[in-house]
Write a structure and sequence with these properties.
Strand content: 25-35%
Largest sheet: 4 strands, mixed
CATH class: Alpha Beta
Number of strands: 4
CATH topology: Glutaredoxin
Shape: globular
Mean pLDDT: 96
Order of helices and strands: EHEHEEH
Strand order of the largest sheet: 2-1-3-4
Number of domains: 1
CATH superfamily: Glutaredoxin
CATH architecture: 3-Layer(aba) Sandwich
């Protein structure tokens, strides 16, 4: 099943770093995935995020306000439904 990985943020350097880290983790896992940047503040707050950067997988927010370690990213991607 293809996983939708969303990076929520306004395009700051941390948001870009999280995007790259999440994409690298998904590639390392060898899964089917789709990356999306969400920069619309209304969409971000609708998802319950108050601090960026944030990462959501299949619409569920996994991390907010920080860049998780590569291990945490891979674990979150694998555990997401």
């Amino acid at each position: 099943m293809k996983k939708k990985i969303q990076i929520l943020g306004m395009g700051c350097p941390k948001c870009n770093k999280l995007y790259a880290a999440a994409e690298a983790a998904a590639k390392e896992l060898g899964i089917e995935y789709e990356m999306e940047k969400v920069s619309d503040i209304n969409k971000i707050t609708d998802m319950g995020v108050m601090m960026t950067p944030a990462l959501a997988i299949n619409g569920e927010v996994k991390f907010s306000g920080r860049i998780p370690s590569p291990e945490d990213l891979k674990k979150a991607i694998m555990e997401s439904k």
